[in-house]
Amino acid sequence: MAKGLTKRQEEILACIRDYVAKEGFPPSIREIGKQFEIGSLRGVTVHLDALERKGYINRSNTPRSIKVVHPEFQPNAGILQLPLLGTIAAGQPILAEEHVDAMIPVPPGMVKDTDNAFLLRVIGDSMIGDGILESDLVVIRPQTNARNMDIVAFLLGDEATVKRINYEPNGSIKLLSSNPKYAPIPVDREGSRVIGKVVGLIRDYEGRSF
């Protein structure tokens, strides 16, 4: 038994470690409760509070924010934590607030040889033709240029969107959806620019939220 832990606390800690190793992100409080047949969320948080107090995990106020910090219970030293920086539109552009909503574990291969990668959550259905659905998390590699028809995160003034970038022969730029119900967006705003290229995608198939 781990030093200072009850049998149930050690079981929950092992559950969190194994879940992260398998899924790439931590379990929700509700999932932990279901696993151990704990009938209330408070019943789970009592154990999580104890684990945090004893230095085995850290948590924040965001969903799925449990992080195992004790060296003997690390789920996978290769898992990377990327910052989730708010929301990006895949319909009409909306404000992408530059603050960290959460740190999300991702497979290292998704950001190989990429420094300062980050995640944005997609809203809207304009990129469904490229397999990008609402609530997906897109992995963004920061860069200021892109090749024709790359899928990019693009800043329009103080709003951001994810689209394919299209350089036209006359020198103009349009942002293209992969859903026919959305018209191309002409880029004619001062300060508009590429902020990164989409290099990966994380989807929650079971409807769970980060």
Polypeptide structure, described:
This protein has 210 residues and is of the alpha+beta class. The protein is 18% helix and 30% strand. The chain contains three helices and eleven strands. It has helices at 7-23, 29-35, 41-53, and strands spanning 57-58, 67-68, 80-89, 102-106, 118-123, 137-142, 151-156, 159-167, 173-176, 185-186, 193-202. The protein has a nine-stranded mixed beta sheet with strand order 4-3-5-6-11-7-8-9-10, with no helix packed on it. The protein has a two-stranded antiparallel ribbon with strand order 1-2. Helix 1 crosses helix 3 and helix 2 crosses helix 3. It is elongated.
Can you give me a brief rundown of this structure?
With 210 residues, this protein is α+β, with helices and mostly antiparallel strands. It is built from three helices and eleven strands, in the order αααβββββββββββ.
Mean model confidence by pLDDT: 84
Major beta sheet, specifics?
A: 9 strands, mixed
**Gap between N and C termini:** 30 Å
> For the CA atoms, what is the radius of gyration?
20 Å
